[in-house]
């Protein structure tokens, strides 16, 4: 049994404080158990050079751990003078995922930046960021009153892993550090896949296990999307 | 009259959530009106090179604005590859101030790092950081159960300024950007001065105005220290 | 039909020049069609700090594009002063993959660094790097005559994608830039999975398509591993 | 008594070589005792982005220690790849101070850069820089023959401190390193205050001591301004 | 006698694979014995700021060692965050030399970048780079079919040194590390000098020795230029 | 005729202020006409890693332009975050040259750092640095009273160039920017060569011109060494 008493396919408690920030176009403070991420959306009237004159917009994400979000203090990347490989990898995943939820042509020549700052880390910060970013994006879109709504699909992500041979959903830090296989799934509200990143950290995995993780993830993502709907539509 | 309706020598509403973080040795989320800073204390069993073998400890502080703490998004210093001059100036002020509240000999060869991350900025982030850091420090000291308590004095800071010729306390962002003179005062609970930084941003000032700001600041700091006492001793 | 005339599940022509470099412990120049990567193995008698005293070793990888490996010249990362997010993401993937082929306990407190420098890029540089790195690793292990052989499994990777609704293997640059879905699979010679990274670049995908790409990839990887065997055992 | 034999409110010997450099629009080599700073003014026909189109100009300062200005060699910031926090703090102080002496509207859309390079450091380098920068600025303004003179006020700074309980002016390095309280004052020729930075390095201070330091500083600044006048008007 | 059996004034075996790269405007893989350099030419339709509007073009070079080009692995400059002094020195030499072979006015407002990436290092990488860059340049010029040919002169470089009192040409790494004097000569096909860099690494040298090295170098350069001619004209 | 009225083989006026700095082990402010360089020597009781345990010492040099040493202000390298290629090239030349004047075995496991900071630049800053560094080194050696004197030879450098077809010595900035060929020579007091760097900036040169420049340089260096002797021995 899991230390937390959760069933293997049970999500942690999810809480969202929408519009947590005064200044951002959209924002929320989202927590999955002890993992807590502040997501903030900025709309800018310019696009990266490679899109100038294309009529299309862009979404990108940035991700950071606050120094004491972690058990052992994490040094500031501003002092080290560069972002780590892990940070790059995560913020590229978040950005790619969000691009699947937005119609960049409808957005027009504008850029959306989503900042995901981890206030507290207890496993699953990248998927929590995606789930929160989607809500912040929805809130921002409402506020911006664009003529054409570029926000096409709710999107959510969840981690699954194999711990002691068992497939588990929404791993906390302790489970994550013991996992033989660690996977992150991102899907649209339609159940279609946007991104899979599955890694045999201490072991390999087979097709059957992949399918089981996928099915487990789909169940979790479906529950998360219900929460997103309540906040954005309710 | 001030836009907020406050009297010239009236503080904004102060709220503190002590022990906001799971992992930090001590922490709080402190707000002065819309300014909101997350303060977190880390104790490390090593000191900077210049103190090795001295038997003395050290306190230092780091400060950062989250990207959407500000009205216009502030670029991440980790991406620019270095901390700005403003960041350096502020975190040096916070560190110097905290060193006045701790007996570095009693601390022994250990280092305390205080992280002040601005969640939302509406003027006075550096003095809010000092006030919150003092609370986080007090909470950490309690938790650490050191043989000898190195925490000697409560410490607090507040801004005063001259706006349209009138001396005002605890300026919000709007007032700060219109101020002719901008000053920050840091004092111990004894009322003694630890640091003054006073700048004629758009105008000069005379001795009388300095004394009036000082007296106004002392009043505010005294009220803040009462709040600190309630949290730490209550 | 594919521009190159290949069948959808057909690999490009693979060529390997083993021991291409004089100085490296093991090396090869590997090409998949026009994609050409120089892989070089270095063995160092030290490990990263987090493994000191653990008795275990480490493998890590570094990846770079030579400036004119690409159609439009790519600026040097040494002049920009940092590695790009893409570089970080790729070299982390290569390193993680290789760790599945080596028994880090048998390696002992030593570190293997694998350099993958792309001489010419025409799609699939990250999976070509993994395939070449495995060969360079095998050649280095032979040369080093370690008491205990830490090299446990041949490993290979291949890209699959969905282009115009059709599943294709081993995409070249042109196909890659038109792909709706882009996936990279890494497997051991046993057929077990080590890593999946699948991304809906311009579209989403469903479970059936994932399974088809997986099956297609397994076919390609099996052929690549036969080539590796001939070089290393032949 | 002070080691140098000076009275507590006595300045060190001040020497100025005006127009020390051939190329600069204005320059001087200024010394306060053994502290020696080279100040150079550059006028540029462009302003920072935030002032474009405003019709207003800008003054900014840069400060550096030459490697052997100090007793123990100071590493070059160009090799460390960034300016230190101390450097940032000091050059921001110099820049802010000089902005009080210039009417930025009269300057028009031009930028003045003042370089303060410390040839030899023996305490008080930041206030020596301000005093020398004012002279270099005055010399540059003369040379430039602008239609409207933007140079409004002579400005000077001096350090005061509390050493062994006694208030002293113009501390040298030895005194500075023993000081309990260290303060820097910047004033216009009118005696009005532009900036105060007072820090309890090893102790706190009270209002009376602040007033005494202020009065002591005013005496020193008045003497410095006489020297400035002789050079610029004589 | 030399370890390799070569006569003191004998070049190593020179091999050139012209047009080694698909994407570059011109390229070659050139080897002098075990030293192997990949040279690639890029033509860009823009010039550095200092030439804008001048009607003149520019050539510049960049140089790097691949990590395992060397016997002991060389750390990547992209990870160290900057190019070393040695790299700067070498690429400036290559750039200056190439500017002697091109008429920058005939080139027009265009910039040529030549990348010299050392695949394997065994002494003489900078002169090998110059010799290969000249060939890559010639191949690029052919391909570009410019109205006016800016390529005026073949150019080549060679190292000479004094080892154990004897003057030797085209030193390999072992000889280079034992040399008392190390010199690099760059000449046009006319025999005229473009650049000399001569350094007494472990000893000084006199005019007679300089003349002998110069004459020895001229012989080698003349042979190299014959090879260049065969490739470019043959 | 030269603009300055000098003969083609005539040095500029040379002035030296020995022991210009209080703190450095040895120092001088040296000027060749309007070129003015501050040279400072530091002795450190540690050597670079590659010499640890070798019993041998090391000399290295650092070079920088002060911002307004130049006619158009040169941006600080500390702000750009790195040293330029030109700076690297020059400080490597100075360091190599000085290593010819010192017996590194007699120096023992110690490192000498020579800082050459250009106060004013008017051509020839690198050779002026070498000449001044030699004097500062001699003064430092005297002061350090080492058992065995590692300082073996006086050393000096001078520039020669070809301007309008005429060979000239000790070029000022104007001459340097018009020179077809620019060469720097470094020699010991014995007249033996330590380093030659000769570049055809706008033209090539032949053996005869090289010999003439060499002979002209030897004449100048001989005069400079007389000046060095007077300062160090007088």
What would you note in describing this structure?
Six copies of one chain form a homohexamer. Chain A has 234 residues and is an alpha+beta fold. The first copy, chain A, contains six helices and nine strands, in the order E-E-E-E-H-H-H-E-H-E-E-H-E-E-H. In chain A, the strands form two sheets. In chain A, strands 1-2-3-5-4 form a five-stranded mixed sheet. The first copy, chain A, has a four-stranded antiparallel sheet with strand order 7-6-8-9, with helices on both faces. Strand 9 of chain B pairs antiparallel with strand 9 of chain D, so a sheet runs across the interface.
Describe the structure concisely for a colleague:
6 copies of one chain form a homohexamer. Chain A contains 6 helices and 9 strands.
Q: What keywords describe this structure?
A:
234 residues, five-stranded mixed beta sheet, 6 helices, homohexamer, alpha+beta, four-stranded antiparallel beta sheet
Q: Given the helix and strand composition of chain A, which structural class is it?
A: alpha+beta
Q: Largest interface here, residues on each chain? A: A-B, 34 and 34 residues
Straight-line N-to-C gap of chain A: 36 Å
- Total DSSP helices of chain A: 6
Strand content of chain A: 25-35%
> What is the typical, i.e. mean, pLDDT of chain A?
96
Radius of gyration of chain A: 18 Å
- The unreliable regions of chain A are none
The helical percent of chain A reads: 25-40%
Structural shape of chain A = globular
Strand order of the largest sheet of chain A: 1-2-3-5-4
What oligomeric state best describes the polypeptide chains here?
Answer: homohexamer
Biggest β-sheet of chain A, characterized?
A: 5 strands, mixed
- State the order of secondary-structure elements of chain A, H for helix, E for strand: EEEEHHHEHEEHEEH
Number of strands of chain A: 9
